[in-house]
């Protein structure tokens, strides 16, 4: 049996070490100075979240992103969201949209979980970003907002057809014919995936691949007709065609097991990032990008249980390609409230988060007595050796089941290898959805927007 006294002494020493090297967050403008120093001239900053429904995570990511834009020259925000919905926001923040309010620009985010992007914190940030861009000199590069995910199969089909209808009606008819193979399944992409996985004759794989190749073959013809704006619109259409191809494969892979579908999705997000950077680099030499996604996507999978199951993620892929030019930042919380659902497609609820288990990173951070802090992990040497040993870490996605929390929401990780920095908030509150029917709370934050 392990020596309990020795184990407790080791835990106490690690707690003391974390307390000594942590940078307390006090609400001052200098709170994230150590993070800015860590970022240096890095090209990619990956900002995670330990849940999809925590106000403090969204607020901190927004504040850090503002500084990265203003002080470090970042000009792109890439998020865990569908490409067409996020591109509508991109048009709004860059001033080329018909939408008149941020609420309207975010209205594309209608599918579950809508609160991930239709919430008060995102509204506030989008308003800031539009104002920031509008105040720039005429020829300055504006900061854009882009989606990395692949769930928008039918929206992306519609976007490709809409683009071709305007620029090449004959090609639009050909694309309509190719995409018609999905029609028997309506909007139910999972049903398509189930049938196509077991019946090759029902597969649309060749059609979606051919459509992407056809669009790429005509790239020079379409993309340069009227300069930069037209080139941007072609890139938007091409990415939608690429998304349709990858989404078709993703929905088939869902019935081959979690590992296959997870890896395909994260590879798609990393691939989208690469194409986005290549496109934006045509406008400025060294595009810098902030990524917003869950810790499970942005923390290096090689330092977690994921790798033992054969899973990879965006954080791993970006690190492998860009090395120290990428900075991975995780977030954690000990207790509080969170916006989440009880089941997929169920209503958003304001749920109480159980205090973290004692042998977790969250429990360790709680024991420091610090209410909120930033902990730099890169190049910290032997002082944080204990944070390179496997320990439980909590992840809350769009579903939170406190009754089965230990089995549903914890995994093992080596934190100092997973992230370059961690930001801990000991007690957090649920993010405020814009649509709050059934979301029970008596609290309305002072920042909640009005007059949408």
Number of strands: 11
Uncertain segments are 442-452
N to C succession of SSEs: HEHEHEHHHEHHHHHHHEHHHEEHEEHEHE
> Into which percent range does the helicity of residues fall?
40-55%
Shape: globular
Residue fraction in strands: 5-15%
What is the makeup of the main sheet?
Answer: 9 strands, mixed
Tally of DSSP helical segments = 19
Q: Which structural class matches the secondary elements?
A: alpha/beta
Distance between the termini: 61 Å
User: CATH topology of the largest domain, which one?
Assistant: EreA/ChaN-like  fold
CATH-derived architecture of the largest domain: 3-Layer(aba) Sandwich
Considering the chains and any ligands shown, give keywords for the structure.
single chain, 452 residues, alpha/beta, EreA/ChaN-like  fold, nine-stranded mixed sheet, two-stranded antiparallel ribbon, 19 helices, 11 strands, 46% helix, globular, disordered C terminus
Could you describe the 3D structure shown?
The chain has 452 residues and is α/β, with parallel strands linked by helices. The chain has two domains: 1-74 and 289-438, EreA-like (biosynthetic domain) (EreA/ChaN-like  fold); 150-272 and 279-287. The chain has 19 helices and eleven strands. It has helices at residues 4-21, 33-39, 55-72, 83-93, 102-105, 120-134, 153-167, 169-179, 189-198, 205-217, 219-223, 228-253, 258-280, 295-298, 305-308, 314-322, 361-367, 405-409, 415-418; strands at residues 23-24, 44-47, 76-82, 144-149, 289-292, 326-340, 349-353, 372-376, 391-394, 410-413, 421-428. Strands 1, 2, 3, 4, 5, 6, 7, 8 and 11 form a nine-stranded mixed sheet that branches. It has a two-stranded antiparallel sheet with strand order 9-10. The protein is globular, with a radius of gyration of 22 Å.
């Amino acid at each position: 049996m392990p020596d309990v006294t020795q184990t407790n002494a080791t835990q106490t020493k690690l707690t003391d070490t974390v307390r000594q090297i942590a940078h307390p967050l006090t609400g001052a403008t200098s709170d994230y100075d150590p993070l800015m120093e860590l970022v240096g001239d890095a090209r990619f900053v990956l900002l995670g979240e330990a849940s999809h429904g925590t106000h403090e995570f969204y607020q901190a990511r927004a504040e850090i992103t503002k500084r990265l834009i203003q002080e470090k020259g970042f000009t792109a925000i890439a998020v865990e969201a569908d490409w067409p919905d996020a591109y509508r926001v991109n048009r709004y923040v860059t001033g080329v949209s018909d939408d008149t309010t941020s609420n309207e620009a975010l209205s594309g985010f209608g599918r579950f979980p809508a609160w991930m992007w239709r919430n008060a914190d995102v509204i506030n940030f989008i308003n800031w970003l539009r104002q920031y861009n509008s105040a720039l000199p005429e020829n300055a590069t504006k900061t854009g907002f882009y989606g990395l995910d692949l769930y928008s199969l039918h929206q992306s089909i519609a976007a490709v057809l809409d683009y071709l209808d305007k620029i090449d009606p004959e090609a639009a008819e050909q694309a309509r014919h190719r995409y018609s193979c999905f029609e028997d399944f309506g909007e139910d992409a999972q049903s398509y995936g189930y049938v196509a996985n077991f019946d090759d004759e029902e597969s649309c794989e060749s059609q979606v691949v051919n459509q992407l190749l056809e669009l790429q073959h005509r790239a020079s013809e379409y993309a340069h007709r009227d300069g930069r704006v037209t080139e941007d619109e072609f890139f938007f259409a091409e990415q939608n065609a690429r998304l349709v191809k990858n989404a078709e494969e993703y929905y088939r892979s869902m019935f081959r097991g979690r590992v296959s579908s997870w890896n395909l999705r994260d590879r798609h997000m990393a691939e989208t990032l690469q194409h986005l950077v290549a496109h934006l680099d045509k406008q400025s030499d060294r595009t810098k990008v902030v990524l917003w996604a869950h810790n499970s996507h942005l923390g290096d999978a090689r330092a977690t249980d994921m790798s033992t199951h054969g899973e990879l993620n965006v954080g791993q892929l970006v690190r492998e390609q860009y090395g120290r030019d990428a900075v991975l930042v995780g977030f954690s919380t000990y207790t509080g409230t969170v916006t989440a659902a009880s089941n997929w497609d169920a209503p958003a609820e304001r749920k109480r988060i159980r205090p973290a288990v004692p042998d977790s990173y969250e429990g360790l951070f709680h024991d420091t007595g610090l209410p909120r802090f930033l902990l730099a992990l890169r190049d910290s040497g032997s002082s944080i050796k204990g944070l390179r040993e496997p320990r439980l870490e909590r992840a809350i996605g769009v579903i939170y089941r406190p009754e089965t929390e230990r089995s549903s929401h914890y995994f093992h990780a080596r934190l100092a290898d997973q992230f370059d920095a961690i930001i801990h908030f000991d007690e957090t509150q649920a993010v405020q959805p814009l649509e709050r029917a059934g979301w029970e709370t008596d609290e309305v934050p002072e920042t909640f927007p009005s007059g949408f």
